[in-house]
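PROTEIN DESIGN WORKSHEET
SECTION A - STRUCTURE
LENGTH: 285
TOKENS:
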């Protein structure tokens, strides 16, 4: 079993290309397999009546990723051995992303928009779909739309669309539900910022992908929301998860190679003393 870790940069990039590239380098340094950004334009994300009445939503204009950053981010990601993905929030974004990304990610909030689903599937790129807030019927409907439009490489991510989300509401058993019901890879999009939740998602429910929100130093615009990981902490989680995955073995009960020497220091069958007599004879301290 293997698991892919994907760092979600969200809007923590500050529309600064050098900071974007630093995120890519950091994701590679902490052991990620991929990095993901978001491409939206405020006017095509929220309805005009919301923007007219809500300054809080209008302020997100500053969170947009400049599209001309995309090829530079893609180049750096590939130089560092990372898959480069991005979330399109409108049809224009799908067109802009298709030539430069390795995969498309569809956010939970857009799971209910079949036109966007179909457009993403029609690119022929691998698609990752988050399923926060959706029930199984809604999820299967979205999967049907994707497959009907040509999606052949699909990963579903169970998640809880609360920022941050309570670990006790993670319901990680849904990872297996999605895998079985939809017949595709399934993983976990984390908003809990809990190492235990990520370990459980991988080791108990075989999550094939773990997406998490990353910030560099706590200065990102979304860090105060409480759902972003800092590099050192996530680096340890990734290492620990992979150490655990490498510990399964083949189940054959035999001594490990690292025990070769120590085996002779067990109790001798004749007198019950350590080590075996053949070792004692040549022992020099």
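SECTION B - SEQUENCE
RESIDUE ASSIGNMENT:
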């Amino acid at each position: 079993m293997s698991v892919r870790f994907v760092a979600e940069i969200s809007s923590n990039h500050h529309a600064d290309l050098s900071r974007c590239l630093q995120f890519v380098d950091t994701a590679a340094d902490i052991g990620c397999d991929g990095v993901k950004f978001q491409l939206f334009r405020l006017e095509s994300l929220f309805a005009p009546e919301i923007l007219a009445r809500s300054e809080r939503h209008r302020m997100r204009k500053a969170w947009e990723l400049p599209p001309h950053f995309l090829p530079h981010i893609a180049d750096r990601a590939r130089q560092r051995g990372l898959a480069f993905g991005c979330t399109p929030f409108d049809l224009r974004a799908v067109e802009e992303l298709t030539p430069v990304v390795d995969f498309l990610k569809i956010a939970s909030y857009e799971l209910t928009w079949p036109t966007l689903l179909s457009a993403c599937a029609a690119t022929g790129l691998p698609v990752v779909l988050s399923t926060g807030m959706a029930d199984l019927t809604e999820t299967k409907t979205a999967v049907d739309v994707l497959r009907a439009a040509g999606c052949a490489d699909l990963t579903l991510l169970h998640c809880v669309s609360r920022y941050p989300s309570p670990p006790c509401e993670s319901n990680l058993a849904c990872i297996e539900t999605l895998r079985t019901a939809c017949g595709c890879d399934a993983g976990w999009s984390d908003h809990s910022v809990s190492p235990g939740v990520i370990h459980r998602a991988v080791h108990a429910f075989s999550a094939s992908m773990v997406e998490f929100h990353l910030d560099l130093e706590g200065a990102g615009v979304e860090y105060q929301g409480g759902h972003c990981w800092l590099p050192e902490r996530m680096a340890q989680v990734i290492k620990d998860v992979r150490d655990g995955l490498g510990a399964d073995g083949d189940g054959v009960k035999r001594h490990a190679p690292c025990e070769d020497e120590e085996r002779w220091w067990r109790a001798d069958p004749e007198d019950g003393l350590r080590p075996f007599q053949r070792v004692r004879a040549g022992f020099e301290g």
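SECTION C - NOTES
Strands lie at 4-10, 34-39, 83-88, 103-106, 127-130, 154-159, 185-190, 209-214, 228-229.
The CA atoms of residues 111 and 142 lie 6 Å apart.
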